[in-house]
Amino acid sequence: MEPELLRTLLMNVASTSRMAVELFLQLQSDSEESDDDIETPDAQDTQLLVAVTDVLSTVEQHLWARETSTEWWDHIVLQAWDDEQWLQNFRMRKATFMGLCAELAPTLRRRDTRLRAALPVEKRVAIAIWKLATPDSYRSVANQFGVGKSTVGMVLMQVCTAINRTLLRRTVTLGNVQDIVDGFAEMGFPNCGGAIDGTHIPILSPPHLASEYVNRKGYFSVVLQALVDHRGRFTDIYSGWPGKVHDARIFRNSSLFRRLRAGTFFPDRKITVGDVEMPTVILGDPAYPLMPWLMKPYTGKLDRSKDRFNYRLSRCRMTVECAFGRLKARWRCLYGKLDLGESSISAVISACCTLHNICEGKGERFSEEWTSEVRRLEDEFAQPESRANREAQERASRIRDALREQFDAESQQ
Question: What does the UniProt keyword field contain (predicted)?
Fold first, then answer.
């Protein structure tokens, strides 16, 4: 008999037998519940039918389940790798990885089925982290871990969803505002609660409204807006807007803008600069609107005092640019033209930001080799230049001018 015909025949037999046993057991259960006087099948007959079906199901499974090896993960990575190998490949030491798995286990744990054993939580997380940290294809990751290609995609989204549901809100958070303010003050800017910017994440051409995702550099992207503290940790993120949309519009549509405008994002902590009252502010580039709570650089012709103000602001605002650089160097999938649906792209970006904060908080070493690896990709996917929005509120201008005069006076002492 032809092998293909035999394969089809055995699969049909196994499928039919399994359905028959399920129906048989259901009829048996119904009969026992409805009438005790009706004779029930012998238990040995039932056990025999189940055993036969299990055998046929095993035959069926061997026909459609690709034989793979898990030797590399089970016996080399888990048992032999040292912390340096974990750091280079998973961007974190083994202890941090296991702690992450423990946090995600209640959401990710699955039960074994009759046809196959469930992937352990640790292996699920490892598959997702490997895919996020490398430019490897789904097929390459599948071969690496001894799983199917479709399993990699499924596990990636399961893990990213679990990270966002379990860890995002308590990891990407404001934290101790006084520490942040003190940190930026040491860098030269008073009463500052964070630095804001946007970065473009390359994606494949979306199926709908593709032209809206083409940024000014000519490639498809979505925008990640982020606020960071003085240490480069994300305190607020907002992602998913098409690359064609201006940073200022994205900002005005974010919950961060609404909370800053309402005065609810930071504690009420004002200082006096000269004769001007100044709330806790964030720092942005010229693309952002000048607000009493958002300082941006002077543009146009600059005198010495304005140039000095811009220098201090720029020095503090570099924290957000450095944070984006470390984020993308750790999680190289963000340079790999994400091949995902629109909602899935935002989930992956948010998960990467959460993992960034976890690594920074745990003191995971950042390797400069990762930065050099992505420089070629940075050239290919250059960030569009920001366009200035020159409209400024009068009060915001007074705050900025007062700061400029104070910085100028300090330099002359």
Answer: Hydrolase, Metal-binding, Nuclease, Nucleus
Q: Tell me the C-alpha distance between 199 and 360, whole Å.
A: 20
Measured between alpha carbons, how far is 323 from 357 in angstroms, rounded to an integer?
10
Q: Are strands 271-273 and 234-242 parallel, antiparallel or unpaired?
A: unpaired
Distance between CA atoms of residues 101 and 86, nearest Å: 14
pTM of the model: 0.79
Question: How many degrees, rounded to 5, is the angle at CA 72 between CA 70 and CA 78?
Answer: 100
pLDDT, average across residues 332-354: 89
Given a contact cutoff of 8 angstroms between Cβ atoms, the answer to whether 230 and 183 are in contact is yes
Task: Write out the two tokens for 412.
Answer: 């002359």
CA distance 256 to 259: 5
Looking at every residue in the chain, the average pLDDT score rounds to 84
From its phi and psi, is residue 300 left (phi > 0), alpha (psi between -120 and 50) or beta?
left
Nearest to 10 by CA among 50, 61, 51, 66: 61
> What would the 3-class secondary structure string for the chain be?
CCHHHHHHHHHHHHHHHHHHHHHHHHHHHHHHHHCCCCCCCCHHHHHHHHHHHHHHHHHHHHHHCCCCCCHHHHHHHHHHCCHHHHHHHHCCCHHHHHHHHHHHHHHHCCCCCCCCCCCCHHHHHHHHHHHHHCCCCHHHHHHHHCCCHHHHHHHHHHHHHHHHHHCHHHHCCCCCHHHHHHHHHHHCCCCEEEEEEEEEEEECCCCCCHHHHECCCCCEEEEEEEEECCCCCEEEEEEEEECCCCHHHHHHCCHHHHHHHHCCCCCCCCEEECCEEECCEEECCCCCCEECCEECCCCCCCCHHHHHHHHHHHHHHHHHHHHHHHHHHHCHHHHCCECCCHHHHHHHHHHHHHHHHHHHHCCCCCCHHHHHHHHHHHHHCCCCCCCCCCCECHHHHHHHHHHHHHHHHHHHC
Average pLDDT over residues 14-41: 46
pLDDT tens per residue, range 242-252: 999 999 999 99
Crossing angle, helix 304-330 and helix 368-380, to 10 degrees? 100
Strands 221-228 and 271-273: unpaired
Amino acid, res. 378: E
Burial class of 304 by CB neighbour count within 10 A (0 to 12, 13 to 18, 19+): exposed
C-alpha 28/C-alpha 46 separation (Å) is: 10
